[in-house]
Amino acid sequence: MPNSLENKHVAVIAFPFGSHLMPLLNLVLKLAHAAPNCSFSFIGTEKSNAILFPKPYIPNNIKAYSINDGIPEGHVMGNHPVEKLNLFLKTGPENLHKGIELAVAETKQRVTCIIADAFVTSSLDVAQTLNVPWIPVWFPMSCTLSLHYYTDLIREQCAISDANRTLDFLPGLSKIRFEDLPDDIVNFGEEETLFSRTLASLGKVLPQAEAVVMNFFMELDPPLFVKDMKSKLKSMLYVVPLPSPLLPPSDTDTNGCLSWLDKQNAGSVVYVCFGTVVTPPPHELVAVAEALEESGFPFVWSLKENQMGLLPNGFLERTSMRGKIVSWAPQTQVLAHESVGVFVTHCGCNSVTESICSGVPMICRPFFGDQGTSARMIEDVWEIGVIIEGRVFSKRGLLKSLNLILVQDEGKKIRDNAFKVKSTVQDAARPEGQAAQDFKTLAEVISES
Fold first, then answer.
1. Strands 323-326 and 340-345: what pairing?
2. What percentage of the chain exceeds 90 in pLDDT?
3. Residue 197, number of CB atoms within 10 A of its CB
C-alpha cells in the first residue's frame, strides 16, 4: 500500500437504500485496513448511517456524517418504492457538499478524493468543484452497466422486440433477453423518473471518472463485455466482493439456524430468502409454502415477521420437524454450510455473490432492477441455477425446480457447475489474482490525489 496515502482524506458517498450500503462499507473497511493513516468520511443519511455505525469492527479512521434524506417535513410517503430514491437524488450536490463540510470541519483535512456509489451521479459535480478524483462504485450485477451505456439503442430496439429476443447487438450480452431488462431501461417518456434519468445518464457520466470500481469477479464476466467497457472508461477495476478481514461473518445466530443445519444431511436443505427489500405477493408466498411442504425436503426460510401470517393454516405445525422459519438468518454462513443444497432467491446482487462464493445452485424469481439480468446469467451463462417457470412462484413450478436441482441428473450438472464457479472465484481472490492487482491500483489512484 503506497506510503503517500498518509494524510489523505477520502469522502465516501453512499446511496442510502437497499442492499448497496454493506458492500460499500466493506470496500471502505478494506481500504481503511490497508491504509490506517488515511481518513475516510462516510456520508449517508441519518437512517442509513444508523444501520452501519457504530460497530466494534469500524476502525478509527472511518467516521460517519449524516446529510438530509430529501423527505420534506410532514411529507407522507406513498407506496411507490422509487419515491424516496427520487427525493434523495433531488437534493443534488448541495446536500453532498454539506456532508463534506461537516467532515472537513471535524478532521481539519481537505478532501483529496471522492469514492461514491455510482447511483449518486451528483457526486461527480462535487468532485469537479473540489478538483479531486471521482471514483464511482458499481454495485448491481456488473454486466448491467452495459445496459445503461446502450440505453438509447435498447429503447430503439424495444419497439420492434418481443420478450424473448436477445440483446445480441450488445458486446457479450447475447444471452440476455428483453424480458430480463430493468424497468428503468424500458420505461421512458412520461413514465421516466428522476432515478431512471440518473441511470440513463451513466454512459455520459462514468467516462469522467478516474476509475470505475466493479463489485464482482472479472473472471465470471463475458470477455466481450469487459473489453467493451474498458474501451469506454479511463480505468475499470474489479474488487472482489468478499467480506473484509475486519467484518465479522454475522452479529449472532440468534435463531439457531447453524446448529439446526448441523443436524441435516449434506446438500439436502432448501434455503429460501428474498432479501431485505423484496416482498413477494401473498399468493406466491402460499405457493412457496405448499411446494416446500409437498417436496419433503428439509428447509430454512428467512421470512419477514409481518409475512408469517400469510402462510397456510397449520403449515408451521405440519413442517416443524423438517423446516425452520426465522425472521432473520446469517445468510453468508447459512449458504456456506455443507447441508444447504439449493438457494431460492430474488437474485439480489449480494445474495447471488454469496451463493456463488459458496457453490450453491439457485432457483431464481427476479422482481426488479438488475435481478432479471442476474437470473439470466445464472441460468444461461454460468449454468448454476434455473429461472422459475413463468418467472413467478407456483406450487408446480417450484416443485419442478427443486426436483431438478436436488434429485435429477440434469441437476447434477448444475451442482457441478456451481462448484466449478466457486473454485474460479476462490482463485480470483488469491493475493496474486487480478482483483488484488486492481485493489492496489485503486489505492494508488487515491494516493496520487
1. unpaired
2. 79
3. 14
Structure-block grid coordinates of residue 181: 431488462
User: Contact at 8 Å (CB) between 356 and 425?
Assistant: yes
For 152, list phi and psi in degrees, rounded to 5. -60, -45
Sign of CA dihedral 182, 240, 242, 5: negative
% helix / strand / coil in the chain, to the nearest 5?
A: 45, 15, 40
Helices (H), 312-433: 315-318, 331-336, 349-358, 371-376, 395-406, 409-428
Q: Which residues are catalytic?
A: 20, 117
pTM over 0.70? The answer is: yes
How is residue 16 written as a grid cell?
A: 442510502
For 287-324, how does the pLDDT look when each residue is reduced to its tens digit (9 = 90+)? 999 999 999 999 999 999 999 999 999 999 999 999 99
Which helix (H) or strand (E) segment holds residue 443: the answer is helix 434-447
Report how far residue 278's alpha carbon sits from residue 371's, in angstroms, rounded to the nearest whole number.
11
Kindly write down the DSSP assignment for every residue of 177-241, as one continuous string: BGGGS-HHHH--GGG--HHHHHHHTHHHHGGGSS-EEESS-GGGS-HHHHHHHHHHSS-EEE---
SS3 31: helix
